[in-house]
Amino acid sequence: MTSVDFEPATGRDHRLLDGLSAAVLPKVSLHDHLDGGLRPQTIIELAHELDIDIPADDALALGSWFATQSDSGSLVEYLKTFDVTLSVMQTADGLARVARDFVEDLHADGVIYGEIRWAPEQHRARGLSLDEAVDAVQGGIEDGIASVSRTGGSIRIGQLVSAMRQADNGAEIARLAVRHRDNGAVGFDIAGPEDGFPPSRMRGAFDYLAEHFMPVTVHAGEAAGLDSIRSALFDGRTLRLGHGVRIAEDIDVEHEQGGSSLVTLGALAEWVKDREIALELSPSSNLQTGAIAAWGSELADHPFDLLYQLGFRVTVNTDNRLMSNTTLSRELALLADTFGYDLGDLETFQLNAAAGSFLPVEEREDLADRIIRGFDAL
């Protein structure tokens, strides 16, 4: 266990963005779900093609419905909105269009590298095989990259192939990810209900992935606590923690007079910090799902700043842009307004994400150089 002095955000003299739009900042997106980032208009058009009933036929009204339904404080209720998005993502054409839109929207927000996570097993209702689903998404990604290129832009995208932890298909999805590592797949993830479905249930899948050197990120420390994180690290051999916000439960903060605090890290928190295991924090989503309920119900209560100041490899993410009515730029702006972060802090978050990405080391270094050049030009 390690004890350190900690100065909270209040009182730090940090320069805000001074009117600069965060959209111009070069960004890296590590935790962004394909089925959580659809354009409302795309949902409407695909639903009409497939004769599917949806809550609203107007893009603005549909977007508002998603935001309202998602702002429940419950991960279970939050996940119900995916019934709508998944319903229009059951054909090759639908998957390709959603993936193309997704890439274009990331580029419009200043993202230069993104890892898109999704679960192919959730897209077989209309007869697609797992491989056909992956091919369709990759085709859409490539179309989106080409569209960005035609406008003079540049973006790079990788797929994170997810297994649903409650479905017990981990071994099959692990083989799928490895099979498509030369077709866009850069890593593996497990998603779905975290509490009651620890990574240890898929230990065989993780063994297979390790044997084939496929990088892994695991949803952990969102709807469940330290035991889930521990299983992700030691059963899943995860290189990143999907959310991971509840690692703060292993940090004891003793407030002292004068505004400073004595902070003690438990063994698990110390391991995550010392190993530089990236935390895929998603501030707005963490509020909506109740992931930070132990600390409060406002963004200022989020342990993001505590983790950052203690030296954890924090990254900023959207989780589900449609449900949270957000973008990566908006998340960065919210954090800057709440904790007084300046451009140097926002650059650190992007460099953390670049370092945590599942690219080869030389390409991670090139990505970091591109981020640095982008921030230096501002």
From TrEMBL:
Keywords: Hydrolase, Metal-binding, Zinc. GO terms for cellular component: cytosol. It comes from the Bacteria. One of its GO terms (molecular function) is metal ion binding. The keyword Glycoprotein does not apply. InterPro entries: A_deaminase_dom, Ado/ade_deaminase, Metal_Hydrolase. The keyword Metal-binding applies. Its EC number is 3.5.4.4. Signal peptide: none annotated. It is an enzyme of class 3 (hydrolase). GO terms for biological process: adenosine catabolic process; hypoxanthine salvage; inosine biosynthetic process. Residues 26-372 form the Adenosine deaminase domain. Its cofactor is Zn(2+). Belongs to the metallo-dependent hydrolases superfamily. Adenosine and AMP deaminases family. NCBIfam families: PRK09358.1-2. This is adenosine deaminase. It comes from Terrimesophilobacter mesophilus.
